[in-house]
Design goal:
One of its GO terms (molecular function) is cholesterol binding. It comes from Bambusicola thoracicus. There is one protein chain. This protein is α+β, with helices and mostly antiparallel strands. 18% of the residues lie in helices and 36% in strands. The protein contains 6 helices and 16 strands. The protein has helices at 2-9, 204-207, 214-219, 229-235, 239-262, 290-295, and strands at 30-35, 40-48, 53-60, 64-75, 80-85, 88-92, 97-101, 105-109, 117-128, 134-140, 152-159, 164-171, 175-178, 184-188, 272-276, 282-286. It has a 6-stranded antiparallel barrel with strand order 4-5-8-9-7-6. The chain has a two-stranded antiparallel sheet with strand order 15-16. A hairpin with a 7-residue loop joins strand 8 (105-109) and strand 9. The longest helix has 24 residues, at 239-262. The radius of gyration is 21 Å and the shape is globular. It starts with a helix and ends in a 13-residue tail after the last helix. The model has no long low-confidence stretch (mean pLDDT 93).
């Protein structure tokens, strides 16, 4: 039940962000998030450009979380459908349980004109690779054309034989409940900060992610997202400078790619490695070097590509 709530909660922040275009990470770009106050640390890296793949890994005393993000796009004229490929993983060290699940299809409506809105639909299957006693199915319902049923999720925890053990229902942007209606609240989305419409629909947590303190600047690799000048200019409201820097960053990436192709060099991810299972399915996992390098000798001694 709790893992299901966690899987659903990942979609809540998208509700307010349908109108904003995200920054595309460049190949080799990284991001760390160290939060002793929340008891976890996180690292991500853009490990592939074609196709675009972002890999991430988070850890704490209570959990280890990892996934790689890739997707296929389908443009339907007025809407853009994003079909994710890959698996989300959570391992709980105390019990040894390892949960894995897929992500659902996302659709952004009114891409070209009108108010944009976002929808998620499809089925999530959560299974415990260590113990098959229970599994969970969650359905993200497609809104009916008159708007009823928007953002609804329905699910069940099932025994090995398929008997329903727990029923789940709610809305992915509001909360999830267990049991017969009105049900017991398992998870509820935090309220949005003031002026969130003006601030790209960011949650309070997202607003904190781009902060760059002098202490942090000293320990970050030169590839960290906080050091992206286009993103920083946009945050400061300087749209013209942000646009100019964005074009320069994209040109630098094209130049690096051309040089690598001319010299027959293949890009190697720095902090993640690629795995292939017996069925040929690809995944990316940490190579456990980031935090060691950050400590000693530090990233200042590391030869990194100039991304911006």
């Amino acid at each position: 039940v709790y893992v299901a709530a966690f899987a659903v909660s990942a979609y809540a922040s998208t509700f307010y962000r349908a109108g904003s275009k995200p920054f595309n990470p460049v190949l080799g770009e990284t991001y760390e998030c160290v939060r002793p106050d929340r008891g976890f640390r996180f690292i991500s890296e853009q490990v592939s450009h074609h196709p675009p793949i972002s890999a991430c890994h988070a850890e704490s005393d209570n959990f280890v979380f990892w996934q790689d993000m890739r997707w296929k796009n389908k443009f339907w004229g007025k809407s853009l459908e994003i079909v994710p490929v890959g698996t989300v993983n959570v391992r709980l060290p105390r019990s040894g349980d390892h949960f894995e699940w897929n992500k659902v299809t996302t659709c952004i409506h009114n891409v070209l004109s009108g108010p944009r809105w976002i929808e998620h639909y499809g089925e999530v299957l959560i299974r415990n690779t260590r113990d098959a006693s229970y599994h969970c199915k969650i359905t993200f319902c497609k809104a009916r054309y008159w708007g009823a049923g928007a953002n609804e999720v329905q699910g069940a925890v099932l025994s090995r034989s398929g008997a329903v053990v727990e029923r789940l229902a709610g809305k992915w942007h509001e909360g999830l409940f267990r049991g017969p209606a009105p049900g017991q609240c398992v998870w509820r989305a935090n309220s949005m900060p003031p002026d969130h419409e003006r601030n790209y629909g960011f949650t309070q947590f997202a607003l904190e992610l781009n902060e760059l303190t002098p202490e942090l600047r000293r320990v970050l690799p030169s590839t960290d997202t906080r050091l992206r000048p286009d993103q920083r200019y946009l945050e400061e409201g300087n749209v013209a400078a942000a646009e100019a820097q964005k074009r320069q960053i994209e040109q630098l990436q094209r130049d690096r790619r051309r040089v690598m192709e001319e010299n027959n060099i293949t890009h190697q991810a720095r902090f993640f490695r690629r795995l292939m299972d017996a069925s040929g399915k690809e995944s990316w996992v940490t190579n456990n070097t980031y935090w060691k390098l950050r400590l000693d000798p530090g990233f200042a001694h590391l030869d990194s590509a100039v991304l911006w």
